[in-house]
């Protein structure tokens, strides 16, 4: 497979904060982006090896971090075995089932400490198809956060019932309206962040889980004026095992949006956003690419 090659940023791009970090390897006039795919696991032994094989078939020059919450089915042990076979696969063991959000926070911190240029969020159950990874890498060339979206043109959820689709799309519309987010899929969990984003959104103060975790991260990224792009994905139901989504997680997401909407920070952000958009022109809500709302 080919390396992920990015054009050398111009001086203007560097001044805007869009250039890659110093840890990026330079080859002639091109730059090789150092990427990490973070995959939280709990009882994913049936999916793990096929998933990693699929990832490497689409992007061979990436590292993967498995964050395992002491899975009773031996997922962590299997991950250690795969690490021995392939040093690009790293494993982080945690004491118990501590939640998806904290798993990603731990992975983000690992990405920062090891100087990766970009870090992915990705599920272990094949609902996030590895075939879309090259699309993310193309988009992250000119964005700070790339979201794999079910609700832009080309995206879909073909396995879902009408009720599940209604609840998910309704939740996203609610979050967009309440928080003023020009994002079609605020709750999507298939994402790619530049390291500079992760370094600036204060990871230690994030406590939400599930839907709320994803909405909060989008909210913080926009709050800091970073550029967000959505790329379409077809979201499929998991191949093996049991879904970990629950009514409690959904309700937590709803309550977090309401709380954030009436917070002091939101009011300050909204005032700043309106001022910036008057200066730079309104955001086109029908576009899949959303410009920064503030200078970086």
Report what the structure shows.
This protein is an alpha/beta fold. The chain has one domain (5-290): Spore Coat Polysaccharide Biosynthesis Protein SpsA, Chain A (Alpha-Beta Complex). Helix content is 41%, strand content 16%.
In short:
The chain has 296 residues and is of the alpha/beta class.
Features:
single chain; 296 residues; alpha/beta; Spore Coat Polysaccharide Biosynthesis Protein SpsA, Chain A; 8-stranded mixed β-sheet; 3-stranded antiparallel β-sheet; 10 helices; 41% helix; 16% strand; disordered N terminus
Number of DSSP-assigned strands? 11
State the end-to-end CA separation.
34 Å
In percent, how much strand structure appears in the residues?
Answer: 15-25%
CATH superfamily membership, which one?
A: Spore Coat Polysaccharide Biosynthesis Protein SpsA, Chain A
Mean pLDDT: 80
Query: CATH fold name, please?
Result: Spore Coat Polysaccharide Biosynthesis Protein SpsA, Chain A
Q: What is the 3D form?
A: globular
Please give the order of strands in the largest beta sheet: 6-5-4-7-9-8-10-11
**Which value, in Å, is the CA radius of gyration?**
19 Å
Task: Tell me the number of helical segments per DSSP (H or I, 4 or more residues long).
Answer: 10
Class by SSE composition: alpha/beta
Major beta sheet summary: 8 strands, mixed
